[in-house]
Design brief:
The protein has 799 residues and is α+β, with helices and mostly antiparallel strands. Strands 16, 17, 18, 19, 20 and 21 form a six-stranded mixed beta sheet that branches. The chain has a five-stranded parallel beta sheet with strand order 2-1-3-4-5, sandwiched between helices. α23 (677-693) packs antiparallel against α24 (752-762). It starts with 7 loop residues before the first strand and ends with a helix. It binds adenosine-5'-diphosphate.
Length: 799
């Protein structure tokens, strides 16, 4: 019998012989016999080990048997140990009673009967054995119960886990998967063999796997909660976003025993979030550029891979479908797709064309091979399309002003994603925002263009007006206001026929076309505000009405008129003396005429006079041209106006018409002026010539020289034709003549007064006329006095 199964028996006696005797008696029982020589020693032994029974001597020094028994009984652990008192003293009742009350189960009186002692002790040994057996059995029973309980509860948990719509799994402390719930198998389509300890790695999206593995390693190490967002592959090959979460379960000692994890489908949430993020990004991209090609390209790039694997944008430009942008994450595939596009350009049957034609969105959750087949033009295209692995697609129209001008196509391939109604809503929102951005850009460009056009209209020299279909003025640019003398405020919003009375007549004379490229201008006179204007105009008919552009040619017209008048006048002026000279010369040659000295002298005078006239006309022309070009050199000196005037009058008197007299009246004391004397003489002669010439009915021409203030004034007054008030300024213009057609037979080049006024201006003086038509004219020339610089300047200013 081994020590393990032997029970202990404590023998307590202060007498060694007794102990030896007891040992000898009990030896055959084959149990563990422990000896103690006092009550204290016995108590110590009890603290150390278990005993099936105690044989206790009653008479012992210090602690006797009774006291020792009482102490044993006081202790919880030793209370149940049976005590057999050994005594030699008495069997009286009192004594025995004390023994029982102290917890004895029996009394054995010395000297012992070995057989009796052994049998009594072996009863207790048996009892102890039975108790121990019972204890063992009940412990076993308890264990079995617990195991059953655990099995039941595990089963319950398993059922619970299986019933959950979430994926649930457990893993051992090293992260090896030990259990997947039913949802896992349903979702992944894995077989129990596949779903082994690392079966989950087959389901996680390859792009998400490295991140997941790293997180797992980190949490296995730290024992922190594992939390990761990843895509799980469904049985049909598509992926859905899940939120994976695992917590460690620890035993009593605090060690991780296993992990319990869940994976919640957050796909819709995640996709909404991604789509929203994409929409925000797309909106900011859309607002960034005003070039819609740039904008749509940027949006297509941003759509991949946020909401699509492929994104294409088509627009119709000039009736032709054009692909503006194509985006994909994989460069190589993109090149491949572009090649495909090159070979098979988008045509009228294509999905983009259909969306644009119908203006309706398209959602194809699952592209079947049959669909590809019907879309492909030939076997090669079908193969290429298959190569792309397209899975699902959405097409949305781009609409502005109720007109579909393009489409956005989103397609999935590698991601295995399948579009649904939610994606369609997002795509439509994207389409709306893109169309809006493009429309905004277009409006902006239009506004810019209008602003530019308005600026041009403000600054052009040509009058530009818009008359709407009702004949109301809608636009009247500043040049139009300047030319017509009518402000925009007065005319815009008013019927043109009211503000410009001769409008209808004018409009008939201005050619109107529908093509601005062939507009031809017509020059025509028009009377506006009592003024006659010559305008050159053309019109272009638009939807809003007619735009007329016109130019004021009044001055050019007048100049033109003047030029033709000049040619007529000058040629006449030249022809007259030439004819006279020619006539005189012919007379000389005539054999039938006897040239007496009188006639010969007269003819020679005609020739010299008319030659002089010719020379003076040509001189005037040259002088006018020199004045215009600024080439005239003046020899400015002090001149005596009195003397010069007297000389001119004297020269004129030699060939005055008979009915004209010239009266000269000069002040006594006339200061000198600063001028070029020969040219000043020309001015005086011209005024005197005109006075005589334009007094065809004769009379008295008065020439006066007076000093007034700081200047000297020369006046030539005639009783002649006079000059209408409206013409008094114009007669100083080059070639201007009141009577260009010479109805009164008075010739001239129209240069005399022009030359005079230009010369006087150069002498710092001024020239003007006072006249009443039919009542003669007085021409005045005022020149500043020489040697009085300050005054002279003042006079110049007053001119
Ligand atoms: P012209 O050679 O025609 O005389 P001028 O320049 O000297 O040219 O004069 C311009 C025009 O002014 C004349 O054609 C004439 O009509 C008008 N004029 C000039 N002087 C007189 C005058 N004393 N009386 C009336 N008309 C005049």
């Amino acid at each position: 019998m081994s020590d393990d199964t032997r029970v202990g028996i404590l023998l307590v006696d202060d007498v060694d012989e007794n102990l030896i005797a007891l040992e000898a008696i009990l030896e055959p029982l084959g149990q563990r016999l422990v000896k103690a020589r006092s009550g204290e020693e016995a108590l110590r032994a009890i603290l150390r080990e278990e005993f099936a029974c105690i044989l206790l001597d009653v008479q012992m020094p210090v602690l006797d048997g009774f006291e020792t028994a009482e102490l044993i009984k006081q202790r919880e652990r030793s209370r149940h140990i049976p005590i057999i008192f050994l005594t030699a003293i008495s069997k009286d009742e009192r004594h025995v009673f004390r023994g029982y009350s102290a917890g004895a189960v029996d009394y054995i009186f010395k000297p012992f009967e070995p057989e009796v002692l052994r049998s009594k002790v072996s009863v207790f040994i048996d009892l102890q054995r039975k108790t121990e057996e019972l204890g063992r059995q009940s412990a076993l029973l308890r264990e079995q119960e617990v195991a059953h309980e655990r099995r039941v509860s595990e089963e319950r948990y398993r059922q619970l886990a299986d019933a959950m719509p979430q994926i649930v799994w457990t893993a051992d402390r090293d992260g090896r998967a030990s259990y997947y719930n039913r949802r896992w198998y349903e979702y992944t389509g894995q077989s129990p063999e596949q779903a082994d300890e690392s079966g989950w790695t087959l389901a996680v999206h390859p792009d998400d796997l490295p991140r997941t593995v790293a997180k797992r390693a980190e949490t296995l190490e730290s024992g922190a909660v594992f939390e990761v967002e990843y895509r799980f592959r469904a049985g049909d090959g598509t992926y859905r976003w899940h939120l994976g979460r695992a917590v460690p379960l620890r035993g009593e000692n605090g060690e991780i025993e296993f992990w319990i994890g869940t994976a919640t489908d957050i796909h819709d949430h995640k996709r909404t979030q991604q789509a929203q993020e994409f929409l925000i990004e797309a909106s900011s991209l859309l607002g960034r550029s005003l070039d819609y090609v740039d904008t749509l390209e940027a949006v297509a790039r941003a759509a991949v891979p946020a909401i699509a694997d492929w994104c294409a944008v088509h627009v119709v430009e000039g009736g032709v479908l054009r692909q503006l942008a194509l985006a994909h994450v994989d460069e190589q595939k993109l090149v491949f797709a572009e090649e495909l596009q090159r070979r098979y350009p988008p045509n009228e049957e294509g999905p983009a064309a259909e969306v644009i034609r119908t203006g309706k969105s398209q959602l194809v959750p699952e592209l079947t091979d049959e669909m590809l087949r019907s879309a492909a033009q030939d076997e090669l295209q079908l193969d290429l399309l298959r190569e792309l692995g397209l899975r699902s697609y959405i097409g949305v129209p781009l609409v502005a002003h109720d007109r579909v001008f393009g489409s956005i196509t989103l397609a999935t391939a590698e991601s295995g994603r399948r579009y649904d109604e939610t994606d369609l809503l997002f795509a439509q929102e994207l389409g709306r925002r893109a169309a809006m951005a493009i429309e905004n850009a277009r409006l902006y460009h239009e506004a810019e263009e209008r602003a530019r056009a308005a600026r041009v209209l403000q600054s052009v020299g040509d009058g530009v007006v818009l008359i709407d279909r009702e004949g109301v003025v809608r636009l009247w640019n500043p040049a139009a206001a300047r030319i017509t003398g009518l402000d925009a405020d007065e005319v815009v919003g008013q019927p043109i026929a009211e503000v410009v009375p001769g409008w209808d007549d004018l409009a008939r004379r201005i050619p109107v076309t529908e093509d601005p490229g062939v507009a031809r201008a017509e020059t025509t006179p028009v009377e506006i505000g009592g003024r006659e204007l010559w305008v050159s105009g053309s019109g272009v008919a638009l939807d809003e009405g007619t735009v007329y552009a016109f130019r004021d040619l009044t001055e050019e017209r007048a100049l033109e008129q003047m030029r033709s008048d000049f040619v007529a006048t000058v040629s006449h002026e030249l022809r007259t003396p030439l004819a006279a000279i020619y006539g005189a010369a012919l007379t000389f040659q005539r054999p039938d005429i006897e040239l007496g000295s009188d006639l010969g002298g007269q003819l020679l005078r005609v020739i010299t006079d008319e030659s002089a006239r010719l020379a003076s006309i040509i001189e005037d022309l040259l002088l006018a041209s020199h004045l215009d070009s600024g080439k005239l050199q003046l020899a400015m000196v002090e001149c005596d106006v009195r003397r010069l005037t007297a000389e001119v009058v004297a020269a004129a008197e030699t060939h005055l018409p008979e009915n004209v007299v010239v009266v000269l009246a000069v002040d006594e004391d006339v200061p000198t002026v600063h001028a070029d004397p020969s040219h000043l003489r020309q001015v005086i002669a011209n005024l005197l010539d005109n006075a005589v010439k334009y007094s065809p009915d004769g009379g008295e021409v008065q020439v006066g020289v007076t000093a007034s203030g700081g200047s000297v004034r020369l006046s030539v007054a005639d009783p002649g034709l006079g000059i209408p008030a409206g013409e008094q300024r114009k007669i100083f213009e080059k070639f201007y003549r009141l009577d260009p057609n010479m109805t009164r037979g008075i010739g001239g080049t129209g240069l005399g007064l022009y030359i005079s006024s230009e010369l006087v201006r150069r002498f710092d003086g001024r020239i003007w006329v006072e006249s009443l038509e039919g009542e003669g004219s007085t021409f005045h020339v005022e020149l500043p006095v020489a040697k009085a610089p300050a005054r002279r300047r003042a006079a110049a200013v007053s001119s």
